[in-house]
């Protein structure tokens, strides 16, 4: 990436050079030692990337680097490869980074991370939803700060709903089933989902976790053992099966990524979907969407226990191996600066995590969906991340797939999943 | 006699000098990783305090493997996939090579076309097929519908059997070029005089194929079978992009499982055990194939 | 020629023609879609059936690929260095080794050959982490030459196997004749064996180059920005929330060009065997 030299930068450089010339040798060395070279590991845009990696807040970023005498090098890989590269580095005991992006992997790598988030200024922490630290906390230590509020919410095609004479978004499970049935016509599907990949945040298992919380259930008890083999667990599973029958796009079982399902909604061949906030910007782009201006958003329909979602948990962490943890923390604080957060929202479509920025009029105007996500955040949105989250969701999601394909009844699938997850949790301890 | 001994000795020492650099390079790169992987398979590996901790557990990982429903399914899937793939790829590859060796197929154009499916970066290839096969907006459904061959959109990767076979076909598509190329090179080794002689003897084209072509390219076929076996046991990209092993573990092959366990679950010991199972299976299969396809010159001569 | 013979000839010709037609459609249909996709907007691509109206066609995908932070040119240069280096070494080390294992009466040549092949039987996934540890300790991470060497670990054994098979098939008479003329093994190999082995050498070279050009997993783990190869760059167009399919196909199309060029250069070598030359008389 090319940066135009700014006037201030040039002046500072010149002043610095003059100063260096006037200093004795030993001092020059210590002057250099203060310069921190940070290496930041994260995803490529359009996935949530920091300033300088994505095109926003570039001037502020340059200023931060100058003020902190720090250089920042980005090590970016495509999102699907993030975890592999990270796993290799951590499993070899050599992570060459100062700041690392995480998505639900904090408990997994907790022993390699620095619990820096306790030291974040209160003014920042108080401006973030307290629950946003749930996915970055393990064993009472807080290892990361989420930088974008990313919760699953409901998206729907306003035109389809109007055609079917449906007034407003579905508010309850019964509404959702009825809507789906009525919207499934003219070669369209009422509902579309990505059930192809069982594991990970956004995978089949985590979608079921939304329904689980809507039914009033939870994954683990106080002792850390699974408690989801309950009425709520089975109800949640039954709801997904009913939704399938009511009119879920039959391809859903084969869509391994959220974008496979998103495309169906964007093409106008499905009417409703559970998706992440980024969906909003994508739907307004005429290059890729046939539903520009026809997208509505709402919180997820309420089950017996009300609405609930899961946390997409895009967070910044600092590995133990960082040689400049203080500067790294300062960089993360910069990423969470109110002005940077605002530009992140407006220029990239990724919502801020700061409550004050979410409430900002400009942000709400640019991203009408911000309000919906904020409202969703007032309901439960636990992602139930643990060190073996990948393994748990793999096992659980596979059982959910079997129920969706009617190879097992919901009760059988949940009972079998509970047995598998129990074995996984026991193996850990 | 003495001259012959010197000749043999010279050949042998030249041979040693010819092989040594290649062996040295391979040992340099692979010796440690291979030995370490075998060692890992006998250990339980955990990440603690940023350090990798290894505990000796003996055969526990293998014991777990043979009691793991997913692993057993993967073994079954892999066996089916690799046998079907070897048969299809070698069969079709031979057919393509014969076509391209025919007077009408000898244009260089066909040889360039042959290489194309193989040359596309596997990541892009897998994403290309993912879009072609998409159940909702995939072009395959579009083409088949407009040709009147199907009535409704098919979910090509939706049911266990269909998904595994569709993956198989895509991998066959990608694998044929190399095998056909190998066979084509093999066909070049068949001396033309043999064909001329067969023609003079009034042999039909089928007889010529069975008695002249096939025996002459037996080595090429053997190499193709052995290499394709190795590769079909290592299929990965396609599964990673198209199905992630789903739906419901229907398309989990052993190598993909080894990846999942190693990189997603960070269970390095168990992952190494699965990888070593792939190693053992390939090793045994390769020995069987080599033995079956060994050119039995002495038998033929006597 | 009798009437019956001519009729069989015609049937064969028709069969071959049909076969070639099927071969072309089978090989190229997906590729045609790749090319079309690279010129279409995402909006047109997710329509069913795909929207092929003139208005849907665009050069935007190529422009975006060129302008994107993902540096395709840099990646192609790296891939070219890695693939050429690895291919050249694989042939230089592999051809003599294959010849020795096939013809130079080495003790236990079959066992050695099989051990060489056996190195390919352990999935790359299993050796990735130990390899990463060694290379990190040596400070050789993110280096094109390291990657080229690592690729030898799969290219060299396969090249040896391809060539050994062909060398086994060469009639013994050729070498005996050379020996009678006083040529030693080195000269025999250089002046008799290599010239008649052009098709397998070309096949092996094409193999090694393509495999190195396209290798993904080791490149992902062993490189960062400066040694990043083409498949990693192409992969960047498939993200978590969005895959701009047209851009990815545009990148794939550009990245495949050098390989096609290589195939065009080598296309004649693949069929210029000793069947035409040496053995004719």
TrEMBL record, chain A:
- UniProt entry keywords in alphabetical sequence: Periplasm, Signal, Transport
Protein's cellular compartments: Periplasm
Cellular component GO terms, alphabetical: periplasmic space
Highest taxon listed in the record's lineage:
Bacteria
| Pfam families hit by this protein | SBP_bac_1
Database matches in PROSITE patterns: TAT
Mainly resides where?
A: periplasm
> What is the similarity comment for this entry?
Belongs to the bacterial solute-binding protein 1 family.
UniProt-recorded name of the protein: Extracellular solute-binding protein
Q: Which organism is it from?
A: Bauldia litoralis
TrEMBL record, chain B:
Q: Which UniProt keywords apply?
A: Cell membrane, Membrane, Sugar transport, Transmembrane, Transmembrane helix, Transport
- Annotated membrane topology: Multi-pass membrane protein
**Which residues fall in a coiled-coil region?**
none
PROSITE patterns associated with the record: ABC_TM1
Q: Which CDD domains match?
A: TM_PBP2
Q: Does the keyword Membrane apply?
A: yes
Q: Which InterPro entries match?
A: MetI-like, MetI-like_sf
TM region positions: 12-35, 79-100, 112-132, 166-187, 208-231, 268-292
The record ties this protein, via Pfam families, to: BPD_transp_1 (PF00528)
Q: Single GO cellular component annotation?
A: plasma membrane
Domain ABC transmembrane type-1 spans what residues? Answer: 75-289
**GO biological process: what's one of them?**
transmembrane transport
Family of this protein: Belongs to the binding-protein-dependent transport system permease family.
This protein is called: Multiple sugar transport system permease protein
Source organism = Bauldia litoralis
Automatic annotation (TrEMBL), chain C:
Q: Which UniProt keywords apply?
A: Cell membrane, Membrane, Transmembrane, Transmembrane helix, Transport
Give the GO biological process terms: transmembrane transport
Q: Which domain of life is it from?
A: Bacteria
- Classify the protein's membrane topology as the record does: Multi-pass membrane protein
Ranges that cross the membrane: 12-36, 80-102, 114-136, 148-170, 191-210, 244-266
Gene3D superfamilies (UniProt xref): MetI-like
In this chain the ABC transmembrane type-1 domain maps to: 76-266
Q: Does the keyword Transmembrane apply?
A: yes
PROSITE patterns attached here? ABC_TM1
- Membrane among keywords: yes
GO CC list = plasma membrane
Protein's cellular compartments? Cell membrane
Q: Which family does it belong to?
A: Belongs to the binding-protein-dependent transport system permease family.
What is the name attached to this protein's record? Trehalose/maltose transport system permease protein
Its taxonomic path starts at: Bacteria, Pseudomonadati, Pseudomonadota, Alphaproteobacteria, Hyphomicrobiales
